[in-house]
Each structure stands twice: as structure tokens, then as C-alpha cells.
Write a structure and sequence with these properties.
The protein is an alpha/beta fold. It has 13 helices and eleven strands. The chain has three domains: 84 residues, Orthogonal Bundle (Arc Repressor Mutant, subunit A), CATH 1.10.10.10; 79 residues, no CATH class; 110 residues, Periplasmic binding protein-like II (D-Maltodextrin-Binding Protein, domain 2). It comes from Hoeflea poritis.
């Protein structure tokens, strides 16, 4: 393929011409461009010599475009606007942050923190959230994703930070918990007929009711649970009094804060699995994504906060 070389005037000459034509004056153009009037005149003179036409009629302080100047002004303005728009588009794309996560993480974890994340960006970028089933999240990472939320029991991960440890505790609607609290004072009794809510979807390492019972030293058998394939729906069922849910710190905070759900005991059990935010190769080159990561890290609940 043959190379193409553009033989056009310098951008300094073109911007000087555009400014003089738009402002109808050399002095005003020099002020706008933060340069001297003689420099502006020199740029215009070089253009007129190069093009072999007169671009401006000068009568004292009055400056007007000639017919050739008007034609050239239209072309130069259009070209400069195209370059400016392309730059804005590229800067916008670089500053925006695209996050990939599950619907549960988006609804329960990211959105309650959305205002803080936007403030971390200084209002100069947008946040785009792509949701998917957890097993399908890896398949969407090549769509321009900067940051992805993942579960892992690793102690350290490259380009990632723990945004919340896995702290669990049973929660339920206030009326239901009030009815059950005295009954559940005896860890060895009463759990068999307690309505429990659980997830039916494929487990990728997060805790289930058996894990909580084991951590609390409660031996139970024959427990019946109502299952849901989405944690958001499960929590809504808990709010409606259908049963107790296993609450994750960082996901049920909003429900606990407004009293829609309450804990059956004042303790959280810590598990090995954690929710991580990981920067993709694209995100590592995106300053806005790095700011989002720092904000998430600063907002992460600790074990002390969980107790």
C-alpha cells in the first residue's frame, strides 16, 4: 500500500486564520491565542503566500473575509471541528470506566456506592456497568471492561484488591426475627422448623447455611429451605417475612441500615472467600479506573466493622 503524505499548513497557521476570521480582528485573535498580533499577522501572511490568494480585506481596523477567505474558512472550521471532536471522543473513552459483575453485585454492592464512585471521578467520567451470570463474566472482559468483580479465597491477587471480606450472619424481617429470637436462644433446638432461604444457583465458593451452622457449632438435620436463583430476590423474600436469609456484609448493609432486615445475633462469621475488584489490562491504563479502585479499597468493610 502506498503511503499518503499530507501537505497542509501548520495547525498554528490554521488556528490563527480561524480565530481572525471568527473574531474579525487580528488583535482579538492574538489575545484569544495568547500570542502577539505580529505573530498572528505572520501566520496569515504565510497562508496567503502559500495559497496565492488574499484571505482578508483590511481597511484600517476593519477585517473582512474575501470570497476565497470565506471558502477556506468553511473548510478549515470543519476540519478543526473534526479533529476536536475526535479528541473529545478519545478522551471520553479513556476516562469512562466499564465494570463487569453479576446482577447481585451491581444491585447490592455497586449501586449503593455509586455516588461515592462518581465523586471519586470528579464528575469527569461516566461509569458503565455490564452484568452477567458469574460463570459468563470472563467471556465479556474483551468488550472494553476496565474492572471486574470476582470471588476468590486467595490471600493475594495481582492487580486486585479486596472490596469486602466474606462476613455472614442470619437476617430476617423484624417481626419474624422477634418471633424466632427466644426460640433460637438454644442453639441445639428449634432450627428444624425455622423457614430458611437459600440460593439454588451454582456455588462459586460463597457460604451456605451449613457453613454458618458449622461455624456456630449447631448440629441440625432435616432443614428445609426455599430456594432462589438470585440473591436480590432472596433478600426481597426475607424482607417480606418469608424466612431467614444468610446475609453477607457489604450486600445487606442497606437493608440493615433502614431496618428492613435485622440480625438474629450481634456477630458476623468470617469466611475465606472474598469479593475482589480486579483491574483488567485496559483498566491498568485508565486513570479513572485506578481512582475507582482506590475508592472501593477505602470503602471496604473490615472485620472490626463487621463485629
Amino acid at each position: 500500500m502506498s503511503s499518503r503524505r499530507y501537505t497542509i499548513p501548520s495547525t498554528s497557521s490554521l488556528t490563527a486564520f480561524e480565530s481572525v476570521a471568527r473574531l474579525r480582528g487580528f488583535a482579538r485573535a492574538a489575545e484569544e491565542l495568547n500570542t502577539s498580533q505580529s505573530a498572528v499577522s505572520r501566520h496569515i501572511g504565510n497562508l496567503e503566500t502559500r495559497l496565492g490568494v488574499k484571505l482578508f480585506d483590511r481597511a484600517g481596523k476593519r477585517v473582512a473575509l474575501t470570497r476565497a477567505g470565506e471558502l477556506y474558512f468553511g473548510a478549515v472550521t470543519s476540519a478543526l471541528e473534526e479533529v476536536q471532536n475526535a479528541e473529545r471522543s478519545l478522551l471520553s473513552e479513556q476516562n469512562d470506566v466499564t465494570i463487569a459483575c453479576t446482577h447481585e453485585v451491581s444491585h447490592l454492592f455497586v449501586m449503593p456506592r455509586y455516588a461515592n464512585l462518581k465523586r471519586a471521578l470528579g464528575g469527569k467520567a461516566d461509569i458503565r456497568i455490564i452484568t452477567s451470570e458469574y460463570s459468563l463474566v470472563p467471556s465479556i472482559l474483551d468488550t472494553g471492561v476496565d474492572l471486574v468483580f470476582e470471588y476468590s479465597d486467595a490471600q493475594d491477587r495481582k492487580n486486585a484488591t479486596i472490596v469486602t471480606p466474606e462476613l455472614i450472619t442470619p437476617v430476617g424481617a423484624p417481626d419474624l426475627v422477634a418471633q424466632l429470637r427466644s426460640k433460637l436462644q438454644d442453639p441445639a433446638a428449634g432450627w428444624g422448623d425455622v423457614p430458611l432461604l437459600a440460593l439454588s444457583k451454582t456455588n462459586y465458593g460463597w457460604a451456605v447455611w451449613d457453613d454458618w451452622f458449622e461455624a456456630r457449632g449447631i448440629a441440625v438435620r432435616g432443614i428445609t429451605v426455599e430456594t432462589f436463583d438470585n440473591y436480590v430476590y432472596l433478600l426481597e423474600a426475607a424482607v417480606n417475612g418469608q424466612g431467614l436469609a444468610l446475609g453477607w456484609r457489604g450486600f445487606v448493609d442497606r437493608y440493615l441500615a433502614d431496618g428492613a432486615l435485622v440480625q438474629i445475633e450481634d456477630r458476623w462469621i468470617e469466611r475465606r472467600t472474598k469479593l475482589w475488584a480486579r483491574l483488567t489490562p485496559k483498566g491498568l491504563e485508565n486513570a479513572a479506573a485506578l481512582r475507582i479502585m482506590r475508592q472501593l479499597q477505602g470503602d471496604a468493610p473490615t472485620m472490626a466493622q463487621g463485629n
